[in-house]
Amino acid sequence: MPLPFLTADRAFDADDDVALPFDDHDQWRRPYRPGPYRVGAAALALLLASFVLLAAVIIAASGAVNGSLVTFGIAVLIILAALRLLRMGTWVSRAGVRRVGFLATRTTPWAKVAAVRTAQQPVRWLNLPRTVQGQALLLDRPAGEQLVLLTDHNADFLSRTEAFDRAADTVEAWYAEYGVRR
Asked: Which of 27, 113, 114, 168 could lock 140 by a disulfide, CB 3.0 to 4.6 Å apart?
């Protein structure tokens, strides 16, 4: 029995009057799914947060309210870090391309993008200091500055080369549609 809600795997009727969420090009969207390493790390962080919350309840039950509040605050910080970890990546919209990092977000309007291209180069493995030879999706600015949007060895695409190729092609298609024609 099929479920009544629309999923990504099921075809939808073209005569529906309902606009699908991905039809709005003004909304920021990630052109790929988060990878298993990113989701696994966030799940482990949330598991750790659950144990810390349990510790906060035990500490509160013992009567140490200040210690319980500190422990609860640590759990909230772990939960926020896990959510930020899931939000990290490259996002696109009609306005431009956005690179969301753990501590900083950088948005570049399409008008300030000279090119978006895939290149073979040394890339960081899981954003650690170790570098390996791989592919990177680069954003070139007119001033000569380069910004790495995606790599095939980050937490989203490690051992998923087809997903990296699809994501890179999607970002390049967004640039081809909304970038400045030179």
From this structure: 114
